[in-house]
Prior knowledge:
It is a single chain. This protein is an alpha+beta fold. Helices cover 35% and strands 23% of the residues. It has 18 helices and 22 strands. Strands 3-2-4-1-10-9-11 form a 7-stranded antiparallel beta sheet. Strands 5-6-7-8-12-13 form a 6-stranded antiparallel beta sheet. The chain is globular, with a radius of gyration of 23 Å.
Amino acid sequence: MCAIIGIVAKNPVNQAIFDGLTVLQHRGQDAAGMVTCDENKLYLRKDNGFVRDVFHTRHMLNLKGNMGIGHVRYPTAGCSSSAEAQPFYVNTPYGITLAHNGNLTNAELLREDLVRDDLRHLNTNSDSEVLLNILANELSRIGKLRDDLQPTDIFEAVRGLHRRCKGSYAAVAMITGVGIVGFRDPNGIRPIIFGERKTDIGGEFIIASESVAIDALDFERLRDIEPGEAVFISLDGQLHTQQCSDKISHNPCIFEYVYLARPDSIIDGISVYKARLRMGEKLAQRILKLRPDHNIDVVIPIPDSSRTAALPLANVLGVKYGEGFVKNRYIPRTFIMPGQSIRKKSVRQKLNAIEFEFKDKNVLLVDDSIVRGTTSKEIVQMAREAGAKNVYVASAAPPVRYPNVYGIDMPSASELIAFDKSAEQVAKEIGADWLIYQELDDLIDACRRGNKKIDEFDDSCFSGKYITGDISKDYLSDLDELRNDAAKEKQALLEDLTDLTKNNDF
């Protein structure tokens, strides 16, 4: 998962993009970038790090123009080098920059086509650069000069992109001196929404990954970009929309509602907050069904994303709700950290137990999900060290048993603690006295109740059903080899050695 934002305004957009990326920081903490356009000149700043660390005053002063796009990265493919920070840029045609959230499942085939047939040079291993070059190639085929380019031409290029690209993609692309286009894959897997702000001198428009960015910048939410649809905002502030795919299906990623999105976001018409409340209610009903004689004294959420589900769960059970952990706000989200050893170390830095809430009590810990189990195991141990008599665990999501190929860092089944294991086996591995998972049907109902028009959710990490229909065992095997923790650690070591060599420190 990453975050994208694009703004066309009547005044400089650098501060608005900075503020929007800060609001969306939870979607990516590895790198940040922004590019703006002023009088057909581009101004770019991107690097590894948090938004606040990448953009200093000198950078902001240089980011001129009333149109721009931004990105925060959480790497699932490619590497963590600053060279792969987004937005990406290609010169031909017109000068195009792009920021992308998702994952192309046919990126390698597209890469070969671009190099062999389209004679395009790619500088990185990122599928986002592939997506950019596909868009650029489709625009080149139209064969028009910049001043002659029409919205219908841009939509035709997106239509060509949809025919070639598979997987998940929500993207914003800026065409120098022309405008910004936002588009979404025909399955609508990753979120993207747009809004408007009226001023005395005309309308301003924003495209972003989550509605919280639109709200925070005082824009009015218009709607989500539909699967297969493109939204074009011209440099002079004119809005154009068009469906660019003949075959669409609405399949938003259900893990957005479980964990990825902020609770105050509304994605595809569904309040993330309300969906999580319903998850807690359904999970409580499951506990009452499976363990009617439970002896739970207190329900404690593992902050922050499980709080919303834990409170109604405690209410339905008729059990006290307690805040048993204090969270260090300066530690990034452990789920998106590379490597098990780093995740394990960060849990103790991130959370500290309040002994009063645990001492001599039967404690139910509520988590949004259990992926690798590293965090859960450490937290169960912390609860025991704080004096808990028994430690039970409830997951607001079903067991994560399958790799995710659509932009979430779950590439290897062998690294998923629930892979090929029962709930009892997972409970033993994390040190819990018992463990209860949410049922998949209950999770789907908790989310779908907010928008019954959704065809079905992408729930592949729970069900193993890949909605794009192009995922084979060989693909998953190759993905495992490229992106498991061992491969990432090896890649990080190679990058460090390269940096040392460049700096003559080796």
